[in-house]
Amino acid sequence: MVKVENRKTLWFLTKQFLKINRARNFIAILAIILTSTLFTTLFTGAGSLFLSQLETNKKKYITDCHAIIQQLSSEEGQRAEAVLKDVSFVEKYGKDIFLGIASGENFPYLLELHAGDENSARNRFALPTQGRMPQTKDEIAVSTTVLDALGIPHKTGEKITLPVSVSDGALEEETFTLCGYWKGDLVSQYQFAWVSEDYAQEKLASDNISGNVFSYAVWFKNTRTISENILTLNELSGLSESGRSGNGFSISPAYEIAFSGEGGISVSSIAAFLVVILLAGYLIIYNIFNISVKNDIRTYGLLKNVGTTGKQLKKIVRMQALVLSAAGIPIGLAAGYIAGVLLIPVLTASLNEKTETVSAAHPLIFLFSAAFSLLTVYLSVLQACRIAARVSPVEALRLAENPQTRRKNKKNFSVSCMGMALQNMSGNWKKGVIVMMSIAISLTTLNVAGILISRHNFKDISDLYLAADFQLSKLTSTADFADFHAISPEIRQTLDVCPYAQETGYTYFSRETLSMPEHLRKTYERITDKYLKQWGYDWDETWQEISASNQIPVLYMGISRAVFDQLDWRGEPASWEDFQSGQYVIVNYPYNYYVDKTDYYYKKGDSLTMTYQSGEEKTYEVLEEAMLPYLLDFPYTELISVKVYVPDTEYIACTGDNSAMRAIINAIPGQEKKVQQYIEELILTKDDTFQFTSVLDLKKDFNRYLSKYYIIGGLLAFVLALIGIMNFYNTTATSLISRKKELALLEAVGMTKKQLLGMLVFEGLFYLCGAVIMAGILTFLYSRRFTDRAIPLYAFLPFALMIPVLLFIAWAIPKAQFRKMNRESVVERIRQQ
């Protein structure tokens, strides 16, 4: 025996095999393209989703840095800065001094006054794009949003006069010269103004400002070691318990949320997608190469006979796979990246939140995609390599002559189209399983997408985000910057006369205090004994002050009829008629922190005496215990307080405040668009600082949010279905080619073409039935994780619509292949083998 050592010879043989199997190679290349496209789309989409979520969180929390430390004293700031200058892993840092808040009656924004460098300005997305940062005591830099609110032209050198409230509460009017500005964000009510460090030092020296005003924003050279770097900074500076958070240097909230995976795609989801893609690609490539090797088994046997080793035959098969991969993977990488970029708006779709979209184009995306695609091809050809390496010349001849009768089938099937189809499938059950699994994966994907979509109900979402069709307020993310009296009597009158509104409602708010009766003190003593340590130091200090003064804060709220109807009652619901008499109040009950269900602040029938800021005193009877939904209630954390609800007329009469905190509007059914247009034209165009939530906008966001399941699930199912159909086509075509002689002999002994075609169609239908059963089992296993409510039947509508399409394919492909085979006569087909 002479070994074939020449690499050129092996390459020549590889090219010959590729030429022989051109049709199958085209399907293999297409399968590789689809597989690499899916991998690239997955990695591009996951990377883009991560970056988009990160950028969204940066804008949301107004921070661009990796780590922060806030509200340090001057001495602590010097220690922090000394360490930041010394360590090598810090790329840059910014120093920020908070001086106070500029505010005024006619100024719609809360303008924070800071002194800082360019890095601090970049961290807050507030670096001047026109002009520069302040350098002298009389200079200031602000956004165009602030300039527009003050009616000042966008031009450096303009004078700006601001009432500045420094940290001791005193109000000082300051005049500055505009030295720089940038485009402001209309969405955010947080606005920043930069002054010089000389101005800051002067204010600090005047003792009007608290010393804990120094903050630092830090960027690291390597984002993969943020946690380790923060630990090092805290150890070196000794500031591990300093700053506003009490944690010293800490990761910025944008990076903390991004790294935790909140709002993005989880590692488990990526792993699940990888497995599905790898399995789908494996099934078709495996089938193609196995069929190819078995059809060429006589040639491999002859090569073995002339001296080619099994190792060299493996190499020939692998070289074919590499050539096909070299042709398919680059196309798949390009197509997958384009698909991933196009899907970014769909992937980042969220409810009630504006998201940034960022495209990920890191070389690792293409490296990982190519690696997983090659891994899929490698795993797919392992079996084909073994078959080629182990075959002997005699066995190759036997397999080539009659591949369908390697094993005797002991089962007896009826002599019919269906029986013969079952007999043929039992002899090729491995191929059948592969085809059925390919189609089943696609059908299961459709079912999973349908189940996920059915889990999202607009009513559930609207109940979560809306208390009415439309809501209007100026409540920001923190109470410090909220306007609790934004809905003026003029705005209320405008809303009340809206011809398209069914009802309007209002909540009013003021802060009052109440002398604690003994039962209320005991309730809070039990609550604070259990939870005060969890709340933190600030609330411990607050409770000590409240306990010493015996005066507990009251969140005093006036509510109209439309709001009253949404109260969550602890006992029996009260009537509006009794409540609006002005003799009763409703008090909230301990919600999250009561020690047991019998605890209460005030119970039905108790007397409650209110002493208002005006000095007026009035005693009420507690009508019931109840609480407003979060969307209508005071939206900020007040862990030690009592909420007292009174009718809106009583609230206005006792406080003299006739401006509401929040307005809700329910439209006449079908008139939602007109109500929104009415509010926009008469209210929002005059004041764009209102927080306006709309059922129409939410529905639009909801549909866009659901589109990610429709589009991603649909596209994935389509590609997987295409792979399954290709597998079915390839299996059917090669089966007919390898059975030409057998089918010709059946026709020669009297079987009609119609019967032969029926047998082949039944085979396709059996494949389909098997795929449907597999998909049903996989769907059942997946759906078991959802036990809270039944899955509606419409979730399986895409699956049901796919069945007729697959039935047509199961009939059309065998028919087309059979017609192609019948172009040759029976004699010609018998002679060919």
TrEMBL record:
InterPro entries: ABC3_permease_C, Lipoprotein-release_system. It is found in: Cell membrane. It is a multi-pass membrane protein. GO terms for biological process: lipoprotein localization to outer membrane. Pfam families: FtsX. Residues 272-387, 715-821 form the ABC3 transporter permease C-terminal domain. GO terms for cellular component: plasma membrane protein complex. Its main location: membrane. The chain crosses the membrane at residues 26-51, 270-289, 321-344, 364-382, 433-453, 709-729, 760-781, 793-813. Coiled coil: none annotated. The keyword Transmembrane helix applies. Keywords: Cell membrane, Membrane, Transmembrane, Transmembrane helix. Belongs to the ABC-4 integral membrane protein family. LolC/E subfamily. This is ATP synthase F0, A subunit. The lineage of its organism: Bacteria, Bacillati, Bacillota, Clostridia, Lachnospirales.
